[in-house]
Amino acid sequence: MVLRIFLRQVITLCCGLLWLAPVALWAQPLEAGVPGTGARDVTPHWAWLQDASNRRTLEQVQQAYASGQFTAAQGAETALSFGFTPSAYWLRLALHNPADQASAQMLEIANPRISSVEFYAPDATGIYRAVRTGGDQPFATRAVANRQFVLPLELAPHTLQVIYLRVQSTIGLIVPGQLWPAQDFAHHVRNDYTVQAGYFGIAVAMLLFNLMLFIALRDRIYLLYAAYVVCALLTIASKNGLAAEFLWPDTLVWSNFSYFASASMALLALTAFTRDMLSTATALPRMDRLLRALMGVHLLAPVVYWLAIRTVAPLTIAVFMLTTLVLIGVGLWCVFKCMRSAYIYTGAFVLLFAGGMMTLMRTLGWLPTNVFTVNGMQLGSSLEMMLLAFALADRFNLLRREKLQAQRALMQTLQTTERQLTQRVEERTQQLQILNDKLEALTLVDDLTGVANRRQFDQVLHKEWLRMERLRQPLALLMLDVDWFKPFNDHYGHQAGDQCLRAVATAVACLSRTSDLVARYGGEEFVLIAPATDSESAMALARRACEAVQALALEHVRSDKGVITISVGVAALASGTGHTAEELLRAADAALYQAKAWGRNQAVLAGGF
């Protein structure tokens, strides 16, 4: 009886094992590695189940596995790729520790942009405990402070432990998994963060370099490139999880929204930079309109991402690829047109776009997940920044050469203009001097008679007085007045009076020496300054003047002489007498009145000198 019961249990167990054979074929457990062996890819050991309702519990999932509803991860190389799907996926992983001692392991899901990640692992009592985290959750929800999603595991000796993982994402769902010995993972994290720090250090150096160039040169192209670098850094920081860890660790941030938004802003700044770098507005006007349209799309894109990122995510990747191809095409076309700046630009951005394309195609599941596709953006961006630094330096040198050439040309033009201007100034100065001399002469000449005016008389009298005192020579002054001029003017008219004054002035001037000055003192009065002339010579000159005017025979019916005559007052003195020029003038005027009182047409010498 006992034997019969034993045989029945053995047959039942064998049948159960035969029924589970298909499951066992693809649900092979993964052995825990020992320190020094590095990471082990868990992808071939996953079994997965699609949860279209997004409502299944862990118990329901376990029952689904028992009933054979899971699918083996056949053909997956380094990551499970489910594409763009709203469904949640459950993953099952069996881990085996064949060693005699406990093994500390780290399960890493190397995609920080998965929106929701839930780990289910049994504790020491066999009860499953959940760790709920994800890209759309605060950083503090993670079991390990790392940019990736990491679950620490403690495997007892000679045990089999089953891990469940629930993942869901608003964009393309890719699940790369690795199992690390705890010590190896610590070394990996150190090296990983060192690489990330090196990349961001290069980017920040390029950012500061271009900002300094912008401040020095005031060329907006450097500011556009700096804006592109900032947006690219935010894009990569959002993509690799560093933004969630260091920029907003305690805030609920939608990692995929920040990634797509910063990527659009980076492409916006890059397109604006391209337009300036390659001068597409003038070199390629039609293509420039397309570039401006793409800039408008990327400018409005963040609003669309916020409202419906799950719906537009596939289209957004297509727009990213289109923008990439257009920018490369513009660069190649400018290379074809032999534009100097296009050569380095195209080489730099082909490397950047190649890295970006690898990342995008990995997201779409077209490329496998490996070190190049995961870090393609950082690799391409680093190479691009170094090459573009040469391009901007070349642009700076070119601008400096053009500036020096322009300065030399401007200097030559200024020198030529200066010579021409100097010549013109000299010519104008000579002309102005001539005009000034003429004007000065006009201001010193009486308009009516053509002899000196009162102003010139005052200047010459002062000058001759100083010379008389310096040279100890005599000075004579003659004051002349036309006799009965007002009756003449009233009888014959003003025109005849003007002609009379001109004739008298001419007659007196003809008698004077070159050193003498004849001036119209006012009205019908004239004065004559005779330097180095004593009283006797002055009286002789005065008498000749009276005779010369009378000899003109200008009819004057109102005069008892019948013709125009003049009366002359003479004053002469020697230096050192203590008199002044004003006293000399008053003496000559008094002598003139005396001559008029004695019957006119005569000269009278002033006494008292």
Explain this structure to me?
This protein has helices at 2-19, 21-26, 58-66, 182-217, 220-239, 242-247, 255-278, 280-283, 285-336, 340-363, 371-374, 376-443, 454-471, 485-492, 494-511, 535-550, 581-597; strands at 30-31, 40-41, 47-51, 71-72, 80-84, 88-97, 103-109, 116-122, 128-133, 149-155, 159-168, 172-175, 177-181, 475-482, 517-522, 525-531, 566-573, 603-605. The chain is built from 17 helices and 18 strands. β17, α17 (581-597) and β18 form a beta-alpha-beta unit. The radius of gyration is 57 Å and the shape is rod-shaped. The chain is of the alpha+beta class. α9 (285-336) crosses α10 (340-363) and α15 (494-511) crosses α16. The model is unreliable at 1-26 (pLDDT under 50). 57% of the residues lie in helices and 17% in strands.
Q: Level of helix content?
A: 55-70%
- SS content category: alpha+beta
Number of continuous helical runs: 17
- Distance from N terminus to C terminus (CA atoms, Å) equals 184 Å
DSSP, total strands: 18
What attributes does this structure have?
disordered N terminus, about 15% strand, 7-stranded mixed sheet, alpha+beta, about 55% helix
